[in-house]
Amino acid sequence: MAVCSFCGNEIKPGTGVRFVRKDGKSFSYCSSKCQKNTKLGREGRRKKWTKAYVDFKKATGGTAKKKSSKKKKKKR
Ligand SMILES: [Zn+2]
Questions:
Q1: How far, in Å, CA of 71 to CA of 39, rounded?
Q2: Distance from the alpha carbon of residue 74 to the mean position of ligand 1, in angstroms
């Protein structure tokens, strides 16, 4: 079964969209939501609602979030 290129969910037969780029690389999407998010330049593993996020988080041990430059609070 095909897997969505954006969210990582399985695509049921008869559903979804396959997009083939000019260079020949093909992407399959389970929904227009995933297709549009890719078009907006988003990464699936950075979005919390995707399966790819959960898998990525598991693989990295819960450090899937971007390293943020937290400013230290000054004690008053
Ligand atoms: Zn998807």
A1: 33
A2: 43
